Amino acid sequence: MRVLAFEDSYDVEALLTSGGVDFEALQFKQRWNTEDALQVIVDFKPDVLLLDHFIPPLKGLEVLNMVNEAVEAGHIERPDTIVGMSSASFANKRMEKSGADHAVIKFDLASLDLWPRLE
Question: What is the pTM of this model?
Answer without folding.
Answer: 0.96
